[in-house]
Structures are given as C-alpha cells and as structure tokens.
Write a structure and sequence with these properties.
Elements: H1 2-22, H2 27-48
C-alpha cells in the first residue's frame, strides 16, 4: 500500500520533471511559476501573521 503510493508520487514527479525540461525555454511558464510562488508566500505569510 505505502510502496504503491510512493511509486505513484515518484511517477508523477518524473513526468512533471520531463514536462519542465521540455518547456524550459518558455518564459510564460517561468513568469507563471514565479507568481504562483508569490501567491503561496502571500497566503502563508497572512496565515501566520494574524493579529
């Protein structure tokens, strides 16, 4: 059970890695990932910085 979950996660990660390598020259991808990172930072910061 646990090994099949780990294998599934590993397969998805390898597929994602291949997709990133194929599309590494696309600036829209990198701009989108940058703004996604900013969004995650903003949500996390606001969740942890409650007054």
């Amino acid at each position: 059970m646990v090994l099949s979950i780990i294998d599934s996660i590993s397969k998805v990660a390898k597929d994602f890695q291949g997709w990133i390598i194929e599309n590494g020259n696309n600036p829209v991808l990198w701009v989108g990932l940058f703004f996604l990172g900013l969004l995650i930072f903003y949500i996390t910061y606001n969740a942890l910085h409650k007054d």
